[in-house]
Amino acid sequence: MGYGVLRIEFVMPADLADHALARAHARPLPPQPQQAPEAQKSPAVAGATLVQLGVGLATKAAESLIDAAALWAQPDVARLECVTPIDGFYGADGRPAIEHACLVMHDGSNRAGDGRSMLGIFQVVVSADGTAFRFDVAHWEARSFQNAVDGIRRLFAHEDARDIALKFEFLSPGAEGLGTRSVFVEQVFTDIDGRELKVLFEKGQRLPWMAMPRRPAEAGALLPLNLKVTLLETEKPRQFAAWLLQQAQARKGELSSLVKDAVQKAIDPAHAATERARLATAAEAAFAAYRTAWDELAAHRKAKPAEGDALVSWTSGQTVRQAVLESRRSVARAAFEAADLPWPGDLP
Predict the structure, then answer these.
(1) pTM for this one?
(2) What is the pLDDT along the chain (348 residues), one digit of tens a residue?
(3) Residue ranges of the domains in the chain?
């Protein structure tokens, strides 16, 4: 019957045997060369339209369809979200630690999924060269729309069809909220009826590749991340198309600029080279500011007084300079990442 909540777990490979739902459906995948083919659409969903939103022009205009929908969504939308931590994306040896791990999601009353109306199990596959990863569908079941949980439909819910979107996003821990998005993949289905809901995904279906998050510069760093899953369901079919149209109309000027910039980058090598040089220069300046802050803090530490009011004033200055140093280090690391340059390492 479902409980109108979303529960998720990211089960690491070593724990699959101890997790009943993952053990029942997931199969360890032997290491083998992986190409990066186009994502597959389940042939059983004949009447549905599947939209793949990857890293490209569409996601620059709106980070994802679910994000764009949040700007226009009314109360007649069922939105379920849940976040779970991943203690380490990489192992101590620098290799991905998540290969064969499983994402288990359902709307049941407990960890075992009792009373659920939906269950999805997605297993991680890592590319042979270690630069990308994806989810493969290990299991999918869905008995009813979320707006029909317990057999109760909202007043304006469409009896026959809805739009559905499912998004997986990996977030780098940050100072604000859950952190900043590292990578994400989104599946969008339009005009889905109750029969198609049950076969949105088929076992073995491959979802799109995602780029590996940047490996930490520090040897042995594990890169903890937060995994956020969002399930969005409209109460009327073809609502996503209407939201995208509203989004495009509201941001017409910005979209035109994005298209122009994308075309120029694609056909003009000099433009791309200029952009790389600009980002590299910005990274150099950011690191110089970081170095200046470090030098100022080092000089301040050497001038530490023994006691008295001078020590109180010195302590205050120490706190401020330390905060400035950490801020400039964060800015510098972000600038190096934007320029796709290796981080030279934190100053001692």
Answers:
(1) 0.61
(2) 455 688 999 999 999 989 999 999 887 655 544 544 444 444 444 333 333 332 333 333 345 555 655 545 555 677 788 999 999 999 888 889 999 999 999 988 898 899 898 999 999 999 988 889 999 999 999 887 766 544 444 444 445 788 888 889 898 876 455 556 677 887 888 888 878 888 889 999 999 999 888 877 776 778 888 999 988 888 778 777 776 666 666 666 665 666 666 666 666 677 678 888 888 999 999 999 999 999 999 999 999 988 888 888 899 888 999 989 988 988 898 888 888 888 888 888
(3) 7-251, 268-338
In SS3 terms, the chain reads as: CCCCCCEEEEECHHHHHHCHHHHHHCCCCCCCCCCCCCCCCCCCCCCCEEEEECCCHHHHHCCCHHHHHHHHCCCCEEEEEEEEEECCCECCCCCECCCCCEEEEECCCCCCCCCCCEEEEEEEEECCCCCEEEEEEEEEEECCCHHHHHHCCCCCCCCCEEEEEEEEEEEECCCCCCCEEEEEEEEEEEEEEHHHHCCCCCCCCECCCEECCCCCCCCCCCCCEEEEEEEEEECCCCHHHHHHHHHHHHCHHHHHHHHHHHHHHHHCHHHHHHHHHHHHHHHHHHHHHHHHHHHHHHHHHHCCCCCCHHHHHHHHHHHHHHHHHHHHHHHHHHHHHHCCCCCCCCCC
